[in-house]
Write a structure and sequence with these properties.
The complex is a heterodimer of chains A (285) and B (286).
Chain A (H helix, E strand, L loop, with lengths): L1 E5 L7 H12 L5 E5 L7 H4 L3 E15 L9 H5 L5 E3 L4 E3 L9 H5 L5 E16 L2 E8 L7 H8 L7 E5 L6 H7 L4 E6 L3 H16 L4 E8 L5 H9 L3 E6 L2 H8 L4 H4 L4 H17 L4
Parallel strand pairs in A: 1-8, 1-9, 2-7, 2-8, 9-10, 10-11
Antiparallel strand pairs in A: 3-6, 4-5, 6-7
Helix pairs in contact in A: 1-11, 5-6
Chain B lengths: L1 E6 L7 H11 L3 E5 L8 H4 L2 E16 L9 H5 L5 E2 L2 E2 L9 H5 L5 E16 L2 E8 L6 H18 L4 E5 L6 H7 L4 E6 L3 H16 L4 E6 L5 H14 L2 E6 L4 H8 L3 H4 L3 H18 L1
Parallel strand pairs in B: 1-8, 1-9, 2-7, 2-8, 9-10, 10-11
Antiparallel strand pairs in B: 3-6, 4-5, 6-7
Helix pairs in contact in B: 1-11, 5-6
Chain lengths: 285, 286
């Protein structure tokens, strides 16, 4: 089963929940923890797995053979991203704008365009007991995280339980990370910011037709509007984590909640059972 | 005109609470919410929308079933896996138009996408330029650029000194679109190992684009040892820690009340944010 952990708003506790879930489930068997927050991957801080392998992520960008090029301008015309400009005697390529669709190379009438790989980041893997950590890391200054997220997700082993830590927001990186997962856990906090961004995240998972449930973190501050919203929308609240300085302290030191306060293990195991039931039957029984 | 952009790398460190407080503290300013994915600044500034515009960006492929001969070429060449069984998955389609170019029977058209909205609004503190990216849309970087360009136009038109931008989390496309060409980046971090890790990458991004940076440690007293690590790190990097804001529930209370924290309370949090703003003023007046 593949569970994505998303939120809309940043800093609500996605990493805390994703890591704790993975560490509880690994007593039962193999677990994969996929850190798809490739702009700011943090799971490795909590799961002390030595990174064993690092694979570059390349996207194909055009390379023009100017001995063959007639400067006809076809490539610039077909590029939807303005990544190619053709001057009288020169072709300019802007690799950071290229999405690697391949249209220019395929459609060049002189076959003057080859593609070369450009590194935009890496995928790193490592093991810690039964937990396999797979994380993507966008290179600083690079714009596009979805190709790295796609690479991370290629490592999914369907015989494992898979937990995906999703980046914040509601745009393409989130869609890439959440797509094709069996269930999406939405982590929020009981504040107007948390509610606003939760409601956006709910729209995303509904558009992708993925069942979802909510974890409310830092319960005790803020207001009760998140609860009212979930009730009104028929979204189950599967876990509440209180605002507790001890929990914040553990997080700050990079200690997973279920290790620093093992009394939380049962709550996360129950969370997993509830998710399994909703994913297979549509409701918590 | 000077533009301060508030970034953090890690989400939830307090960017929006600080941006809203600067809205109160700055004399002559335009506010820009560059977190177009999950825009929250409006919740504290209570804007009245004066102008609302659609944001059309990118395109999506559409297959005309009448013309399609199901030859399968489009599915074969699409690198985004967006065409299955001669249907385009609009979410996966990146709008490159390759399929439309090569379809032998001209059955694929590219249709423009309405990818969100952007707004110019009045608030008690000045003009706010903000936006809402459509759900699951691409091109958030372009929408950020549109927000910033319009904030600049307003500032130039009214001879306003400051643009204060509330940035998105992360270091990718929308963060880069928020940062490039700004006068100063304020990096808000928190004393957690994640906060430190993400600060290092956000600072790397400022270096990459050659934008001067200042650091604010928010909730510094949640883990003072980590706060010292951040201070040492910043010292080594030659970056100033311009403020250390303590943890206090008044920040959340202010969010619930829908007001900037410096208006809600006059305690230590507000004092620190006021000093931080003074610090930024002196730094950019130099």
């Amino acid at each position: 089963m593949v569970i994505s952990v998303a939120s809309g708003k940043g800093g609500t506790g996605k990493t805390l929940v994703a890591v704790s879930l993975a560490l509880c489930l690994c007593d039962e068997g193999q677990v994969q923890l996929l850190d798809c927050d490739v702009e700011e991957p943090n799971d490795h801080i909590f799961v002390h797995s030595a990174i064993g392998q690092s694979q570059p992520v390349l996207i194909p960008v055009p390379k023009v053979d100017e001995t063959k090029c007639t400067y006809c301008g076809k490539c610039a015309e077909v590029c939807a991203y303005n990544a190619i400009a053709v001057l009288k005697q020169k072709v300019l390529i802007f690799p950071e704008l290229c999405h690697g669709c391949g249209a220019c190379s395929y459609l060049c009438p002189e076959s003057a365009i080859a593609e070369e790989g450009k590194e935009i980041g890496v995928v790193e893997t490592g093991n810690s007991g039964n937990v396999e950590l797979i994380q993507g890391r966008l290179a600083i200054g690079e714009l596009m995280s979805p190709p790295i997220i796609r690479e991370v997700k290629k490592h999914i082993n369907p015989t494992s339980e898979v937990i995906i830590d999703v980046p914040p927001g509601t745009s393409c990186p989130v869609v890439e990370a959440v797509s094709d997962t069996d269930f999406c856990l939405l982590v929020t906090e009981p504040t107007p910011f948390g509610l606003n961004d939760l409601s956006l995240a709910v729209e995303v998972v509904r558009k992708l037709q993925i069942p979802c449930g909510v974890v409310v973190n830092r319960v005790g501050v803020g207001d009760d509007k998140v609860e009212a919203y979930c009730q009104e929308q028929g979204i189950p609240i599967l876990l509440e984590i209180p605002l507790d300085r001890r929990i914040a302290m553990l997080y700050s030191k990079g200690i997973p909640l279920v290790e620093g306060m093992p009394e939380w293990r049962n709550a996360f195991l129950k969370l997993f059972q509830d998710i399994k039931q909703i994913a297979s039957f549509g409701v918590v029984r | 005109m000077k533009e301060v952009v508030i970034l953090s790398g890690k989400g939830g460190t307090g960017k929006t609470s600080i941006a809203a407080s600067f809205a109160v503290l700055a004399q002559s300013k335009v506010l820009a919410d560059c977190d177009v994915d999950a825009a929250d600044l409006y919740l504290l500034l209570q804007p009245k929308v004066k102008k609302s515009e659609e944001f059309w960006s990118g395109q999506v492929a559409f297959i005309d079933k009448e013309k399609c001969t199901e030859c399968g070429l489009c599915q074969e060449i699409c690198r985004f896996g967006a065409i299955k069984d001669y249907f385009v998955d609009e979410v996966s389609c990146e709008g490159c138009g390759f399929c439309s170019q090569i379809c032998p029977v001209d059955a694929i058209a590219m249709q423009p996408c309405m990818a969100g909205h952007w707004f110019i609004s009045d608030t008690r503190y000045g003009t706010l330029v903000h936006a809402r990216l459509g759900i699951a849309q691409e091109n958030s970087g372009k929408l950020v650029t549109l927000v910033r360009n319009n904030a600049k136009l307003v500032a130039e038109g009214q001879n306003i000194d400051w643009i204060i931008s509330d940035g998105p989390p992360g270091i990718g496309c929308p963060a880069i679109a928020s940062l490039s060409g700004a006068s100063l980046a304020l990096l808000v971090t928190e004393p957690t190992l994640s906060g430190i890790h993400d600060l290092e990458r956000a600072l790397g991004l400022c270096r990459y684009f050659d934008i001067p940076a200042l650091v604010c440690i928010n909730k510094y007293d949640l883990n003072e040892e980590n706060s010292r690590r951040i201070e040492n790190y910043c010292y080594d990097q030659g970056v100033e820690v311009a403020a250390k804001v303590p943890f206090d529930n008044v920040v959340t209370e202010a969010i619930v009340q829908g007001v900037p924290v410096v208006e809600y309370s006059s305690n230590k949090v507000s004092q620190e944010i006021k000093e931080l703003w003074q610090n930024i003023l002196t730094r950019l007046d130099r």
